[in-house]
Model the fold of this input.
Amino acid sequence: MTAKARQSIAPVCPHFDPLAPAQNANPYPVYAEMRRESPVFYSPLYDMWVVTRYADVAAVLKNHAVFSSVGSMQTTPHLPASVSAVLANGLGAAQLMVESDPPDHTRMRAAVNKAFTPQRISQLEPRIRQIADELIDSIVADGRADLIHQFGSPFQGLVICELFGIPGSHSEQIKRWTDDWVEMLSGGANEERMVECAQAFVECQHYFLEQLRERQAEPREDLLTAMLPINMGGTASMNAAEAAYNALDLVAAGHETTTNALSNGLIQLFTHPDQLDLLLSDLSLIPNAIEEMLRIDTSVLGLFRVTTSDAEVSGVTIPAQSRVFVAYGSGSHDEERFEEPERFDIRRANAREHLAFARGIHVCIGAALARMELRIALERLLTRLPNLRLDPDAAPQRLEHFWTRGYKTLPAIWDAPSS
Ligand code: HEM
Done:
């Protein structure tokens, strides 16, 4: 049977549309229906396959030979000439860890892993706590804040600068550059906007190259020095373009995801007062609460792979060269793995088995850092902002995105200390 013929008899879900307002607000009911009825299906709307069950998601992620990451993130394979002309001013073609397969992935991951040691991460803990407290100092007297713009986003930005050893004052600029880059990759923007995004991407590449050169001249105790390529006097098996690209990818991969994970988690607490009260009565539950937050509403709903050959998943054949959406968020709601999966339970014994950080060779390299940041942020917010709750006069606004889950705004209030 040809791949086309198989596709024509494959389970199809025409109403799967993560960008439709109802599914963007709550994608989990459609996934529950598909896990029950057609756990592996083809979406004609997006011309892609979707894998929804926990066991299948884990199996796909482990089979990187058949489910390749090369070219998996790029939604606009044919960029307009004006955009390509701008990109030509960058550092040239280079691979990103997240979009590569072995042996390139193995080589780059080893280089970044060497920089991302548990010791380096735990050394950051006092400084991360200080960053959280300084941000809270700036809002505590007001009794209200948008917890994304006045806490979550600057918090992640400053932590990442600390990790890289770059000045905190560069944080907002870097965030703008990497947001533009992600917008360029996601497609959807008009040509004029794509050109602007490409310019931002090129500027960001040169910024990181310059930062690497500064460390070539004078090595420091930071992650960028640890990522310095061998041909620049460092130890990393990468060329300069790869080091710069992977540095900017670490920023993009770490900033938005962790900010969104905090917002998603806070909303769960605010809308489940019994769980919030339980946590406030025993802050030692925070680490498990974080796992449950990542399970119940993750910030990366899923990511993509491309099949290198025909592949069978749960009895369905996905043809070679197909784009596959691996739905981590659906796997983390699988009733086969989690009892009463829609219940938010910060004491859930197996919450940590969620798929929010994926599995296999691309498993999130920043997971330990993200867990530490979330633990500190939650502990400082709940301790220092008494009776923290949603602002009854301003509803939080959801982001509209295919695979990123989070909020644009998170207006909250608390009992401000009387002056
Ligand atoms: C709660 C926060 C976070 C979530 C939910 C998250 C989620 C993920 C997921 C699902 C993947 C797998 C990608 C794939 O399957 O292709 C991933 C990979 C990655 N993450 Fe995270 N992440 C978070 C925080 C961070 C942080 C703080 C950093 C770094 C500062 C980071 C850096 C990366 C990088 C570089 C990769 C690619 C690894 C590779 O391809 O080998 N992430 N992350």
